[in-house]
């Protein structure tokens, strides 16, 4: 018996076949994805293994500074400095540490950064805590106790003393004895000081 298929049915059948071939998860695609995954995983683990190999063997390539001494070319550095100082219209002084203010970033990079010592006097001049001098603490906190770490006759000690006592001892340190303040709560428990150093 001849199968009688209407035109519409044929069309639907064709459409279904087409959709089947366009299905996302076909066995072939699944295989392809599997192969790619395996290749990727192998590649990643291979490169990781290689990296650790490199790390392990890095010690072989460590530069031995004793056999290859670091040489600072002072004459060259001095010449560069001369040129830079002239460029920035700044008098050349080879024998003192300069005190500078209003230094531009470019000038700092060119003349000082890793090249020459400098004291920059106006980095924090707008920071309220710039006013925290010995006098300031003596005037405002003389009788308050602070935690002080001390080395007395080369032996460590920790004591609580008046701020005034701590400050008066500051200048009398020596190789066998000195004091330093280590009071983590002093500032945080005093809002008027805390606001001077800012939120961080
Ligand atoms: C570095 O080199 C010096 C001089 O060649 C040598 O004496 C020294 O053993 C080396 N150090 C290392 C850690 O290889
Ligand atoms: C430091 O104290 C002086 C004198 O009281 C004041 O004029 C100045 O503004 C203070 N500086 C800062 C950064 O708060």
UniProtKB/TrEMBL annotation:
GO terms for molecular function: cis-regulatory region sequence-specific DNA binding. GO terms for cellular component: nucleus. InterPro entries: JMJD6_ArgDemeth/LysHydrox (IPR050910). The chain crosses the membrane at residues 28-49. Signal peptide: none annotated. Keywords: Membrane, Transmembrane, Transmembrane helix. This is Uncharacterized protein. It comes from Mytilus galloprovincialis. The lineage of its organism: Eukaryota, Metazoa, Spiralia, Lophotrochozoa, Mollusca.
């Amino acid at each position: 018996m001849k199968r009688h298929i209407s035109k519409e049915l044929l069309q639907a059948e064709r459409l279904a076949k087409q959709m089947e071939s366009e299905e996302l998860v076909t066995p072939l695609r699944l295989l392809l994805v599997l192969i790619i995954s395996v290749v990727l995983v192998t590649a990643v683990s291979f490169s990781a293994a290689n990296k650790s190999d490199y790390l392990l063997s890095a010690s072989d390539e460590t530069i031995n500074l004793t056999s290859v001494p670091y040489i600072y070319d002072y004459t060259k550095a001095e010449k560069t400095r001369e040129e830079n100082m002239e460029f920035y219209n700044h008098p050349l002084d080879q024998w003192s540490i300069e005190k500078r203010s209003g230094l531009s970033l470019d000038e700092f990079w060119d003349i000082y950064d890793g090249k020459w010592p400098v004291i920059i006097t106006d980095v924090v001049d707008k920071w309220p805590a710039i006013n925290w001098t010995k006098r300031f603490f003596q005037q405002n906190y003389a009788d308050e106790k602070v935690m002080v770490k001390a080395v007395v006759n080369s032996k460590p000690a920790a004591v609580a003393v008046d701020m005034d006592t701590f400050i008066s001892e500051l200048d009398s340190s020596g190789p066998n004895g000195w004091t330093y303040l280590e009071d983590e709560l002093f500032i945080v428990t005093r809002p008027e000081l805390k606001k001077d150093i800012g939120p961080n």
